[in-house]
Amino acid sequence: MFFRKMTKREKVNTEKAAGFTFIFYMLALGCHAIYSFMQGDRLPVTFLLLMAGLLIFFVTEWLLNKRQQ
Fold it and tell me: Is the CB of residue 46 less than 8 Å from the CB of residue 29?
């Protein structure tokens, strides 16, 4: 198989990297949405992407926590 099984340390590092990536994308989309709003655009698509990403994140987190209880 192409992918090998990850070690525990690699899993932790991957989760940290995913967290930093998530924060970067949310900040980038948020700044672009604010900039577009200040320029007089209607509702920028980046704002919709930002809200959809946040919604997916929090719903997924809630579902996973609920399943573990």
Answer: yes
